[in-house]
Predict the structure.
Amino acid sequence: GAGVSQSPSNKVTEKGKDVELRCDPISGHTALYWYRQSLGQGLEFLIYFQGNSAPDKSGLPSDRFSAERTGGSVSTLTIQRTQQEDSAVYLCASSLATGDYGYTFGSGTRLTVV
Amino acid sequence: AQSVTQPDIHITVSEGASLELRCNYSYGATPYLFWYVQSPGQGLQLLLKYFSGDTLVQGIKGFEAEFKRSQSSFNLRKPSVHWSDAAEYFCAVGGETGGFKTIFGAGTRLFVKA
């Protein structure tokens, strides 16, 4: 597509429920990144996929967080047993290769855990 | 480990005045440096990037940034600010040493007064 598409744009969930956030990168972009932006905070790196290489999961805050990327395209970020501190905007970005071109960001998914 | 510091949480400038947003980075090798802008309710947009070569880089919307290796800085400048420049600005660093994932600063919020 023309840009990075994220869905849903907003998600309200009850504490303890699982959620799935979707990211559809720009066609042809081999690198895909997930970041989290909490209110008034900068961007926190979560996970990075590059082609068929093993993802860099070093930023995932706990084992409740996981992500996959199917067929080198669409990615899903899953948060299990959500907690209130998971409330944030989850941003996805993609780039042509290894990040040296700068990222194109999606509009994000605003997650609210009540 | 790579890191980015944006010393100013917020800055207020008058419309038409010049602007400089500060950014200091820590990186073990030659960094890739970026500035992004996030307007209210919008996604992040890449303003400019530095990889190598001329240390003064030009970006979109009349912005420029200068890479100073000796000071580990990459400050963003604009000669004359417009009211539409009010937004949050993020400096970021990445590169091969970090596996090409990009680390973002906490951001500087720019307010423009008439």
